[in-house]
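Box 3.1 A note on notation
Throughout this textbook, protein chains are presented in two layers. The first layer is the amino acid sequence; the second is a token string describing backbone geometry. Keep the layers aligned when reading.
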Amino acid sequence: MNPLEHQIHYPFGDTLPAVGETVEVAPGVRWIRMALPFALDHINLWLLRDRQPDASGAMVEGWTIVDCCIDSPTTRAQWEQVFASSLGGLPILRVIVTHMHPDHIGLAHWLCARWDVRLWISATDYNVARVAVYDPQGFGGEAGADFYALHGAQDEAFLSHVRGRASYFPTLVPALPARFRRLMDGDVLDIGGRTWHCISGYGHAPEHIALYCAELGTLISGDMVLPRISTNVSVHASEPEANPLQLFLTSLLRYRDLPETTSVLPSHGKPFTGLTTRIDQLHQHHQDRLADILQAAQNRALSAADVLPILFRRTLDTHQMTFAMGEALAHLHYLWRGGRMGRVMDGDGVLRFRLFE
């Protein structure tokens, strides 16, 4: 266990929902856990007891889904098990997606069609997801390979992997609902007679939406606040001068005023309490990594590829390398955009970052 985990508390201990079943984590809030075929091998999904008016204005009892998992026969079958075991014969009334990454939005099209309901999501994430699904060059491809090569990752096996990622997103998210309901920061949702506040976050996704219910003392944090790992924060080829780490660290402050006793329901890991403590840990983690980079830059200019062993002290496979390169650039851009480093192009056509003399 990471020593920092002793500073937060897991109220459910080692309890995990069984496949196709749920665990109640607050009144009217149920936890679902589904497997993912990645190093980060699971995602948490949520069912919220709800009631909504139908077309005639009559109130209908049912459930709201928060996040969906990737599209695969296995996840569809697991959802069918949940529908049979945990809904009490009631329907799904809407689908909320915190952000556009495949493990969150992948099955939204199927769930919305299955129950004839609307997708609720931020407009930014919906439209970026449309690019990723319907534009084969939206993510990865030659543009992505050229971008990583520019930043020092010139291993041909890795670049070949990136070129092949042009179709990666649609394999996990083959379609999107044709229409959606827009969520924005500050929106207030009535879910089952309880008030849930939308809190936007940036840096990890274009416009991530977390949900907070003061009555329940519960935050559905999505990927913005995770208990064991720091959320991936990346620079991508489509926005090559982005400063996502600054956006992420600033966004975390939006949650810091919530009570320390808040029950945090993350997308990965287990529900926990100790929100302020965890936010402080995340800020310190990134400040420590930035200090490591500045120390290494005392002796030489650094490309993003040069920074990988500074940030990641384990062997990375080609899939993990794409996230790691994006994260390395996020840290370098934080220092560059903050005026602490400059960028130079070396004779090999690689962009490097150096301290100002």
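The domain at 3-299 is CATH 3.60.15.10 (Metallo-beta-lactamase; Chain A). The chain has eleven helices and 14 strands.
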